[in-house]
């Protein structure tokens, strides 16, 4: 059941990426205008056009990386909790099996004269 949900989510994600808009602008119009006006031949009117473009690219990278790293952190915490819960259930089942084996052994020992 859990595997089906995982595959469904994966398939839905792939379908949304494929059917999404085919052309996406990488920058808002204001950012694009600021970079193009400030980076004529690598230098703007103040000579700092390439620095502006570099800083804009750095800002875009921050905006790109931070949400994905937050999602990965949440996924890691959920995965670790799932793994810990699975380990705890396995330990409880093993203890129950050992107790059942001890109980059946002690019951079979009492019936012999």
Describe the structure.
- There is one protein chain.
- With 113 residues, the chain is mainly alpha-helical.
- It has one domain (29-110).
- It has 3 helices and no strands.
- It has helices spanning 2-19, 29-38, 49-110.
- The longest helix has 62 residues, at 49-110.
- The model has no long low-confidence stretch (mean pLDDT 76).
Contiguous runs where pLDDT drops below 50 for at least 5 residues: none
Query: What share of the residues lie within helices?
Result: over 70%
Question: What is the radius of gyration computed over CA atoms, rounded to a whole number of angstroms?
Answer: 30 Å
Number of strands: 0
Task: Please give the count of helices.
Answer: 3
Tell me the β content: under 5%
> How would a textbook summarize the main sheet?
none
What is the residue-averaged pLDDT?
76
Identify the quaternary structure here. single chain
> What distance lies between the first and last C-alpha atoms, to the nearest angstrom?
51 Å
Quick summary of this structure?
With 113 residues, the protein is mainly α. It has three helices and no strands. The protein is elongated.
Secondary structure layout plus pairing:
Elements: H1 2-19, H2 29-38, H3 49-110
Features:
113 residues; mainly alpha; 3 helices; 0% strand; elongated
């Amino acid at each position: 059941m859990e595997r089906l949900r995982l595959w469904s989510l994966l398939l839905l994600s792939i379908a949304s990426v494929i059917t999404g808009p085919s052309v996406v602008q990488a920058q808002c119009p204001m950012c694009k205008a600021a970079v193009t006006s400030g980076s004529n031949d690598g230098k703007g009117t103040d000579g700092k056009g390439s620095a502006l473009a570099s800083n804009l690219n750095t800002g875009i990278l921050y905006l790109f990386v931070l949400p994905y790293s937050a999602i990965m952190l949440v996924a890691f915490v959920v995965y670790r909790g799932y793994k810990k819960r699975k380990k705890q259930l396995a330990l409880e089942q093993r203890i129950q099996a050992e107790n059942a084996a001890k109980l059946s052994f002690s019951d079979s020992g009492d019936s012999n004269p």
